[in-house]
Structure formats: C-alpha cells, structure tokens
C-alpha cells in the first residue's frame, strides 16, 4: 500500500472512530429534585419514572441522533432553591445542557432566572429547563423565559377545571382553602378565589390558610379548624408529605365533604387516606389512568410496575417530557439547546394516551386535556401505593378549553 493510500485509509478510520464515539456518547439530563428529606418519596418516584421513560421510549428504540442514549443524572436539591442553584452549577460544569425539575415552584423560579442569566452570558453552553411539575402561573406569564418549557398545566389552568366541577355541585356553599406557604400555595389560593368569584359568587370562603412547607408534623389542628368552619368543601394544593399529613388528619376528624386537590394520590398519600377518601377526594391531573386510555398506555404502565413494584406512574407528564425532547432533537438533527428549543416551541404531539397536545409558542405552556378523577376502589385497573385504591376519571376537559390567556412577553435569543 502506498503512503498516500495509508494516509487516506487512516483518515477514514479516524473519521469513523470519531463518528462512532459521538454516536455512543450519551445525552445527559440533570434531574434536580428532592432525593432526601420530607419530600424524598415524591422526588425518588419521579426519578424512577424518568429513568424508565428514557430507557423504554428512547434508549431501547435506538436512541436519538444515530444511536445516542438518554442518561438521567440525579442531583438532590432537598427542595431548596439555594441547593438547586448549587446543583445547577454542578450540572453545567459537567457539560449537561438539559435540566428536569418539578417539585416546588420556588425552585423552578430560581432555576429559570439562573438559566436565563447563564445563557445570556454563555451562548456556547446554553441550558434548557424542562419543568414537569412546578405550576406557579408566573412561570408562563410575567416571569416567562425562552429557556423554560412547562409540561404540567399551570395552577390557574388546573383551578379553572376544579372550579368548573365545584360550580356544578349545588350542595357546596362554603369552601375552605389550605395550602403550603410559598409561591405555588399562594397561586392556588389566589386562583381559587378568582374563579369561584366568577362562577359561584354565592359561595363563601370560610378559610384561606397557608402553613409552612414540609415542617408541620401534625395537621390535626388544621383539620379541626376546617371542620369547625362548617365548610362544604376543601381546596388544597398540598403535595408530598404535607398532603399525606393533611389527608390523614382530615380523615381522622371524620370530615365528610369533597376535597379538591392537585396532588392527593401516590407517594404514600393514597395508602394513608385509604377508605377515608373514597368518593370524597378529587384530583385534577393530565393523563387518564382508570380506565386505561388504550392498550399502548396499559402496556407501558404494566411494564413500569413490573420493574418498580413499589412505585407508580404518578406523573404521566414525565413521559411527554422524554418523548417530546427526543422528537425535538430528531427534528433539529442536533442536541444543541438553541436548535432543540426551536423545535419544542409550537410542537404538536400525540401522547401514549392518544391525546393531542401542543407546546404553546407564546409562553411555552403545554396545552393538553385535563382530567378530574375520584379516589375509589371500584372499577380500578391500576391502584396507587399497592393499596387497592386509585383515581378513576369522572370528567375530562378538552385541551382547547383549558387554554387561558398569557401575559408573557418573551425575550428571544438573536
């Protein structure tokens, strides 16, 4: 072989090796959420759902961009905005360009602001925040960012759905609102008052209370106060350990009124509430579980439970995050955040449930069907917490009917 031929062959092998190395390199996604402390159960469950979705829906199907797999990198933030910023800095230092986060809107606001500043200063190492559960309306209104995409419905969108259900219940004359004392809890209370005032001005708000997040050990005094108020219904945005505690206390007081919630299922909540919540707890959520929407979703849920018998598919939006991110990368032909963001913006997508959703360009809020389900042990295919109880869909609001106007004035990169 001539020297020239040797050089050409060597260059070809080098190019092929470089291509193979790039194809094999995993695309890392930082999971910044609580993995210790009072909300560890919620964070750990979410982490396992991300890992399973990435493996089943992307990695086992050949990956993206010629065979590159997703890798979920867990980073414990202890539900602390300050700790979250430390973990964000660590992720950026490790060359990670995608962050998923959901627990606490206070954390989401801190991350959104930090990522926006980082991206302005470092256009060659931009980061995208994929928000799967932080629902403060400000995140897609006055604090919206081009680098933030929300896959859950905002607190106002969910409350609009819940208050439609309350509006149609003529037995409800008095409502007690209780929630966690931070941006999300305040947003829930504010939107409840607004929508009830518009739809049922005859309803009296007999309580509007905020409690410290993650610090109340015994919710009995709160439950006793709710019962003494004469409330016909309760509205709460509590989640994680705070929902477990509140649900347990309400059950023990024997309060027999409908309770309208955002997160009163799974993560130990369903098991704790048990029979006490039957036909009383209502949950607003995305992605119907009971009855299963179709065989595709049923197979996915069954597969997750087989691999994670002590956990649940409690946040279907996690599936949408993974699938839509993969689709955006394929359409962009790149993993670069600026190119992926362009594809996510305005994306229309059909979920495993067969539901059509769209990532609204104006504010990066996913517009999707919303469901209201009841806590029961009747006609349940998939229970929660292996308790025999689960959430059965009672009503569905079409995606177009959930969309609320936005005040977002987004600054877009040049």
Secondary structure blueprint with pairings:
Elements: H1 3-24, E1 27-33, H2 40-57, E2 70-76, H3 81-93, E3 98-101, H4 105-121, E4 128-131, E5 148-150, H5 155-167, E6 174-180, H6 183-199, E7 204-211, H7 220-228, E8 233-236, H8 240-253, E9 259-261, H9 269-273, E10 281-285, H10 295-307, H11 317-332, H12 337-344, E11 348-350, E12 356-359, E13 366-367, E14 370-376, E15 390-397, H13 399-402
Parallel strand pairs: 1-2, 1-3, 3-4, 4-5, 6-7, 6-8, 8-9, 9-10
Antiparallel strand pairs: 10-14, 11-12, 12-13, 14-15
Helix pairs in contact: 2-11, 3-4, 5-6, 7-8, 11-12
Can you describe what's shown?
The chain is α/β, with parallel strands linked by helices. The protein has two domains: about 10-155 and about 295-370, Rossmann fold (3-Layer(aba) Sandwich); about 155-290 and about 370-400, Rossmann fold, CATH 3.40.50.2300. Helices cover about 40% and strands about 20% of the residues. The strands form three sheets. It has a seven-stranded mixed sheet with strand order 7-6-8-9-10-14-15. The model is unreliable at about 5-10 and about 10-25 (pLDDT under 50).
Number of domains: 2
Number of strands: 15
Tell me the name of the CATH homologous superfamily of the largest domain: Response regulator
Please write the CATH class name of the largest domain. Answer: Alpha Beta
Overall body shape: globular
- The CATH topology of the largest domain: Rossmann fold
Share in β-strands: 15-25%
Structural class: alpha/beta
Percent of residues in helices: 40-55%
- What is the tally of helical segments? 13
The major sheet is characterized as: 7 strands, mixed
Any guess at the CATH architecture of the largest domain? Answer: 3-Layer(aba) Sandwich
Give the SSE string.
HEHEHEHEEHEHEHEHEHEHHHEEEEEH
Mean pLDDT: 93
Distance between the termini: 51 Å
Q: Using the CA coordinates, give the radius of gyration.
A: 23 Å
| Strand adjacency order, main sheet | 7-6-8-9-10-14-15
Q: Enumerate the spans where pLDDT stays under 50 for 5 or more consecutive residues.
A: 4-9, 11-23
């Amino acid at each position: 072989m001539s020297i020239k031929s040797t050089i050409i062959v060597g260059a070809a092998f080098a190019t092929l090796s470089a291509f193979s190395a790039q194809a094999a390199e995993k695309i890392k996604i930082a999971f910044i959420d609580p993995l210790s402390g009072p909300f560890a159960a919620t964070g750990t469950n979410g982490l396992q759902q991300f890992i399973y979705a990435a493996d089943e829906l992307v990695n086992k199907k050949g990956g993206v961009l010629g065979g590159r797999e997703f890798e979920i990198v867990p980073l414990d933030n202890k539900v602390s905005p300050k700790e979250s910023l430390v973990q964000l800095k660590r992720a950026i230092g490790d060359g990670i360009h995608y962050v998923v986060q959901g627990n606490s809107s206070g954390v989401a606001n801190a991350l959104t602001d930090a990522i926006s500043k980082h991206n302005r200063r470092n256009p060659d190492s931009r980061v995208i925040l994929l928000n799967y559960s932080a629902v403060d309306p400000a995140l897609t209104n006055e604090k919206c960012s081009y680098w933030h995409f929300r896959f859950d419905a905002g607190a106002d969108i969910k409350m609009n759905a819940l208050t439609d259900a309350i509006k149609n219940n003529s037995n409800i004359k008095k409502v007690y609102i209780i929630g966690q004392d931070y941006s999300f809890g305040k947003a829930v209370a504010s939107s409840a008052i607004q929508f009830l005032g518009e739809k049922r001005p005859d309803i009296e708000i007999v309580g509007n209370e905020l409690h410290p997040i993650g610090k109340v050990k015994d919710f009995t005094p709160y439950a006793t106060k709710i019962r003494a108020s004469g409330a016909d219904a309760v509205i709460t945005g509590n989640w994680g350990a705070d929902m477990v505690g509140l649900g347990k206390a309400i059950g023990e007081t024997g309060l027999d009124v409908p309770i309208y919630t955002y997160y009163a299922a799974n993560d130990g909540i369903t098991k704790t509430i048990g029979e006490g919540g039957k036909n009383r707890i209502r949950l607003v959520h995305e992605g119907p579980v009971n009855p299963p929407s179709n065989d595709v979703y049923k197979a996915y849920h069954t597969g997750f439970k087989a691999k994670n018998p002590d956990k649940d598919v409690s946040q279907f939006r996690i599936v949408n995050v993974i699938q839509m991110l993969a689709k955006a990368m394929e359409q962009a032909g790149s993993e670069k955040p600026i190119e992926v963001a362009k594809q996510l913006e305005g994306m229309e997508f059909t979920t495993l449930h067969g539901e059509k959703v769209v990532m609204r360009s104006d504010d990066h809020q996913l517009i999707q069907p919303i469901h209201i389900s009841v806590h029961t042990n009747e006609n349940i295919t998939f229970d929660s917490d292996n308790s025999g109880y689960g959430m059965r869909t009672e009503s569905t609001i079409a995606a177009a009917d959930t969309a609320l106007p936005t005040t977002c004035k987004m600054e877009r990169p040049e």
